[in-house]
Inverse folding.
């Protein structure tokens, strides 16, 4: 009898732990950070959060959405979490993790056959980029924070952005080195794209939890688990899977 009670107790504990489901939203066409893969949601962000969920005893449901909509769902509490860059606006509706999930470098790409490529190679600072037509994502915080004054065309997917760039409809695409190199290789256009030095800044991606979510109260524990994942090499191993 006592044995059956122990089994039942273990089952209750297990069900209780895994009934805690976190809903993660991410940009639907932003490989390698987030993308659709045979009907599922995949990418660096999903891999990182699946590992965190396993360690912290909750289940994860990932939603790939247009990035502006993904952020809105976290703002309203329809979703629990996203992984992104901290901005004052996002801090208004989300608790951002003290621990950095991963860091990348902000860089610029152009088409090698761009007639202004010699001029573009003279770019030294982020401010220098403002004089050139650019292309980026709908909902990009970079556009709002640092590209004010520039002419920026906004599109919904990486594929469309690279096509736009190669058709000489914009001079520059600014994003992280991870995103630019992965997608240029994935689309088979590495030989047509030039990455311009220098790296403008380090870009830090953190876990953000909606202030409406019950997981917000767990941020100290989640952040410590992220630090452990970094220290034991888990984060580096996940990032390496997507390197190009």
């Amino acid at each position: 009898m006592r044995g059956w009670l122990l089994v039942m107790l273990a089952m209750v504990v297990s069900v209780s732990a895994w009934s805690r489901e976190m809903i993660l939203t991410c940009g639907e066409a932003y490989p390698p950070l987030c993308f659709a893969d045979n009907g599922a949601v995949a990418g660096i962000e999903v891999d990182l959060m699946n590992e965190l969920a396993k360690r912290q005893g909750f289940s994860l449901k990932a939603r790939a959405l247009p990035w502006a909509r993904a952020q809105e769902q976290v703002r309203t509490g329809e979703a629990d979490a996203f992984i992104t860059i901290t901005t004052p606006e996002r801090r208004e509706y989300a608790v951002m993790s003290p621990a950095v999930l991963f860091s990348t470098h902000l860089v610029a790409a152009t088409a090698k056959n761009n007639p202004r490529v010699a001029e573009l190679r003279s770019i030294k600072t982020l401010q220098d980029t403002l004089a050139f037509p650019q292309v980026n994502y709908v909902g990009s915080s970079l556009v709002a924070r640092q590209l004010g004054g520039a002419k920026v065309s906004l599109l919904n997917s990486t594929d469309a952005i690279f096509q736009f760039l190669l058709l000489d409809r914009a001079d520059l695409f600014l994003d992280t080195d991870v995103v630019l190199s992965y997608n240029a290789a994935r689309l088979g256009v590495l030989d047509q794209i030039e990455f311009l030095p220098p790296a403008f800044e380090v870009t830090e991606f953190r876990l953000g939890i909606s202030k409406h979510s019950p997981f917000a109260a767990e941020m100290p524990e989640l952040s410590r688990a992220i630090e452990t994942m970094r220290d034991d090499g888990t984060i580096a191993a996940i990032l390496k899977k997507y390197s190009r």
